[in-house]
């Protein structure tokens, strides 16, 4: 029986044209680490504090999936900054080609050596309801876009957790990929020179299977979440969570990685809100082209004399100037850190951001796999409608993408935003999330969530 979505859609059904398979790769199993690891300190002050009147925020670390899909190749050295603009542009173009070719060589199996065993860490913020009623409510899992720390979700969260739908939400986990934000600082000496989006998907699954605590609770948790017993992890693979109902909210890169995780472990997920995910059909880019957005990431300014100067420079930037001011302040507070040479710098360098953009093979794999995602998992697509920015690869590609899995799916357009919906229109996004949660979950008994 085909399942019907709980919400109506902006874009009517659009069939998928003929397409060529990319032969999606299998999900490499991971090994869990014991509890005798050398555990790093948080690089930023702990957040154990009130987030709003009803929720407390805290920050945690968990080991990332191991081994990685990628070999242990050192980070490449980015070209030195040149004051000559044309020379700088040539250097970036040449280096962008090098990064793209390196990624292609990896996918073609042309690198020798074992998969990297270096220990990496994911960071996550937990937003827990101060008073839990002991009944099974919703757990939200947030996955960010490339280049942005986990805290850039907090403006959306403030609107959402002050809405009536907050009564349904017991806990929120805002996850951070290994080369982003605080995780980038923790992993600084162990990050490699190639990234694969499938590893980020494996990191999400690894966290959900092996580290997300059994119950939502108002109790404080240790910074380093303990490894769960194998019996619990094995149960979750086939039967999901015994005391949680998980809603994944994934934006851009985070939306793609979340889909790849959910395809492989569908029992974990109740529903997904996909915020213009970076899921693009094979052939959307010309063969041998420089990976999308790599040059822009490499050209990004990385340091300022102070946070105040950084904020001023962002406010006059066409890119950052479109952001909600509260999100921009969060980016300055949590996306930057002290620079040992003086002033402040990005926690995630332009090089790391470029390496993520170069590792785009997971995007067409997710596009192809969408129609295999368990129909039980309801999909709510939230896509942009700003003139000139109507979704990844344009409006027609978006109309096709949101119906790649027709059953139990719906979509809505936010006309005030481009691709960066959580950054530009966090209040509207929170309203859409709240409306979806209310429609799908409000009338259910908590025991059936």
Characterization of this structure:
The chain is of the alpha/beta class. It is 32% helix and 15% strand. Strands 1-2-3-5-4-6-7-11-12 form a 9-stranded mixed beta sheet, with helices on both faces. Strands 8-10-9 form a 3-stranded antiparallel beta sheet. α4 (197-210) packs across α6 (253-264) and α6 crosses α12 (362-369). The protein starts with 48 loop residues before the first strand and ends in an 8-residue tail after the last helix.
Please write out the topology.
Blueprint: E1 49-50, E2 55-63, H1 85-107, E3 121-129, E4 138-143, H2 154-160, E5 169-176, H3 181-186, H4 197-210, H5 230-239, E6 245-251, H6 253-264, E7 271-275, H7 294-298, E8 303-304, H8 307-315, H9 318-321, H10 325-334, E9 336-338, E10 344-346, H11 350-358, H12 362-369, E11 378-384, H13 395-401, E12 409-414, H14 421-424, H15 426-441
Helix pairs in contact: 2-15, 4-6, 6-12, 8-10
Concise structural overview:
With 449 residues, the chain is an alpha/beta fold.
Apparent shape: globular
Percent range for helical residues?
25-40%
Low-confidence stretches: none
- Strand fraction equals 5-15%
How would you write the strand order of the largest sheet?
1-2-3-5-4-6-7-11-12
Series of secondary-structure elements, N-terminal to C-terminal: EEHEEHEHHHEHEHEHHHEEHHEHEHH
Structure class? alpha/beta
What's the total number of strands?
12
Number of helices: 15
Distance between the termini: 20 Å
Mean pLDDT: 93
What is the C-alpha radius of gyration, as a whole number of Å? 21 Å
How would you sum up the major sheet?
9 strands, mixed
